[in-house]
Amino acid sequence: MRYIKNSKLLMVLAMAIFGTIPLFVRHLPLSSGEIALYRAYMAILLVGGFLLVTKQKLPLKVLRQKHRLPLLLVSGAALGFNWILLFEAYKYTTVSTATLCYYFAPIIVTIASVFLFHERLTGMQILCFIMSTVGLVLITGLGRVGSSDLLGMALGLGAAVLYATVVLVNKTMGDISGIHRTFLQFSVTAVILTPYVAFTEGFHLYALNGMGWGMLLTMGVLHTGIAYCLYFSAVHHVPGQKVAIISYLDPLIAVLVSVFALGECITPLQIIGGAMILGFSLLNELVPTRR
């Protein structure tokens, strides 16, 4: 029981760390592609080191199966560009708005699962979809926001679609443990984003000052390597429903960072819309699915 309690604390800590990422992204003078790429490389080093220390071998035999490698390539690419779109969204709208649009992803997964895995929607899941969509409409301010904000929201929703893609692909790779799968996805992300960054924005590490290097290393070491290791160390020892509940600390903290640390404005309508998205998305995850 005490071990489960400690595991919950580790998960809470991991989610709290994830929720502060926008604060660092906002102040790094690098393109979204570069930040995503360096984050992937540092994650490979740290998560790979964790696997070595804990003597966990990669399931390379499983990857030799025909469909595994293409799925891994798709999920790795989706993960990398999901980061890029989300980081870009932070540039065009407030962190709270981008984050709340991004957390429409669980609803996208539920709807896509109907077509991909023949899961039947319950009445409660349909209600969650409708109410989360209403919340998304409220987030947009009912047409009262500028074109920059709308672009940021579109990027946030695009990131949500890509994150949903990662989740859906992971559903088909159930015999690979979470941390092994994540390490392999980070590796693919780094391989795909390296040429992408080289031929688009280019590399600008030389432009970073001491503060910039400190923020980049903090984001790579703390927000990616350590946070993922904490999460995967704890997730197997915490009941599934509590994992879902704790996971929603991430967007809540991101919204608090947006308002109190970055001084960004959030309207009462957006607060209601955000509460609807997060509340009904969480409820959707807690409702059992039908096949």
Span between N and C termini? 33 Å
Q: Can you write the helix and strand succession as a string? A: HHHHHHHHHHHHHH
Question: Which stretches of 5+ consecutive residues score pLDDT under 50?
Answer: none
Average pLDDT, all residues: 86
The amount of beta strand, in percent, is under 5%
Largest sheet: none
Our count of helices gives 14
Structural class: mainly alpha
Helix content: over 70%
Count of strand segments? 0
Radius of gyration: 19 Å
Global geometry = globular
Give a brief rundown of this model.
The chain is mainly α.
What does this structure look like?
The chain has 291 residues and is mainly α. It contains 14 helices and no strands. The mean pLDDT is 86.
Q: Which labels suit this protein?
A:
14 helices, single chain, mainly alpha, 291 residues
